[in-house]
Design goal:
Largest sheet: 9 strands, mixed
Oligomer: single chain
Number of domains: 2
Radius of gyration: 21 Å
Number of strands: 25
Order of helices and strands: HEEEEEEEEEEEHHEEEEEEEEEEEEEHEH
Shape: globular
Helix content: 10-25%
Distance between the termini: 74 Å
Structural class: mainly beta
CATH class of the largest domain: Mainly Beta
CATH superfamily of the largest domain: Jelly Rolls
CATH topology of the largest domain: Jelly Rolls
Strand content: 25-35%
Length: 366
């Protein structure tokens, strides 16, 4: 005879439950200034940290802010989720130990960006005796935790992924460049000394003077791209799936976000360290209000090598006679709003901002 269970468990978010078990502090917002996120001691890492959560993060990725004290270090880590690190402030080093006993290490400073090969052991060290080191990592932990929902497996599996280690040059700021159509140029590496100085390649489908490059880290499934917007211009409005964490690196300006059919805009002001992931299919547009180019890094899931989902595959690749969907006009079945089709208020808002800053606009609409 079947008996009714007294306390069935359904509708479980295994990642959210893990966060509670870990006791890690959580910061939440549409956007966050990572320099202002309050951190607290996280026993797993042995340093102060916080999880950064956003309504636009989606189901696959999250962010952790790691705050290493002067002269301190994190505890050694090893796990089955991927991560891409950006150094907000401070100087130090990271040591990797692979399953075959080999070790690699590299030194980082403000603006450095790197990936940890899957399931490699690693530890971070703060080189300063007086200043903290502040880093942010985008990870695939929500995806992995929700699939396996088993801490022991995720954090204590000894399996080696030697194909992820990469070449020695990938750890000293070198890499391999793969040229595709504009917007699909890829730099494969494991370490970039300074994202603000990384060479980009032209991609004007999104706006005049714009440039871009995608970064492939540790042969992983994470998406990374760097975009730069020319001084006193702005990019075209566009949308894409949730989970792309947009982190401001350089320059001045703002972004507008709105849902399709809405006439209300949400505004996010830029400065170094501000992050905002647009929500699923939420239109957004980036505006420069300075005489200097503005640059950001976007991190998420699914790249040109491993799109991971059918939607990402369609989003990333062009056909022989059509642009990829992310830079194709919405009138042609794409996800981009051409300048001539945008709400006229958008240009007027920007012109007023330019007037306030005493900047001469460098963008002339059709």
């Amino acid at each position: 005879m079947l008996e009714t269970a007294t306390s069935p468990r359904f509708n479980i978010d295994s990642y959210a439950e893990w966060v509670k078990r870990e006791g890690i502090r959580v910061a939440y917002g549409l956007s966050l200034d990572l320099f202002e996120v309050e951190t607290a001691y996280w026993p797993r890492y042995g340093v102060k940290a916080a999880a950064a959560h956003f309504p636009g993060s989606g189901d696959y990725c999250n962010m952790f802010v790691i705050d290493i004290p002067a002269g301190g270090s994190s505890l050694p880590q090893q796990h089955l989720y991927e991560e891409a690190y950006y150094i907000l402030e401070g100087r130090g080093s990271t040591q990797l130990e692979f399953a075959d006993g080999r070790k690699r290490s590299f030194e980082w400073g403000p603006g450095s960006f790197f990936g940890i090969p899957l399931n490699a052991k690693y530890q971070h060290f703060n080189a300063s005796g007086t200043q903290r080191a502040l880093m942010v990592e985008t990870t695939t932990l929500p995806l992995v935790m929700n699939i396996f929902h088993n801490d022991e497996f995720i954090f204590n599996t000894p399996g080696a992924f030697q194909d992820r280690y990469g070449q020695d040059k990938f750890y000293v700021g070198d890499g391999d460049l793969y040229r595709g159509r504009p917007g699909n140029d890829v730099w494969e590496t494991n370490f970039v000394p300074d994202l603000s100085k990384l060479d980009l390649l032209p991609w004007e489908d999104r706006g005049q003077g714009s440039s871009n490059i995608k970064i492939l880290l540790a042969d992983g499934i994470m998406h990374v791209h760097i975009s730069e917007i020319a001084p006193a211009t702005y990019k075209k409005g566009h949308k894409h799936p949730a989970g792309t964490h947009v982190l401001t690196l350089t320059g001045g300006g703002y972004s507008l976000l709105w849902d399709e059919g809405s006439t209300d805009y949400t505004r996010v002001e830029w400065k170094h360290g501000v992050v905002f992931p647009p929500s699923e299919d939420q239109f957004h547009q980036h505006f420069v209000t300075s005489n200097f180019p503005s640059r950001y890094v976007a991190t998420g899931l699914g790249n040109l090598r491993y799109p991971l989902t059918a939607k990402k595959r369609v989003q990333s690749f062009a056909t022989a006679d059509r642009k990829q969907i992310t830079s194709r006009s919405i009138k042609d079945g794409g996800n981009q709003i051409e300048y001539e089709d945008q709400d006229p208020r958008i240009h007027q808002i920007w012109l007023e901002e330019m007037r306030k800053h005493g900047i001469t606009p460098q963008l002339t609409l059709p």
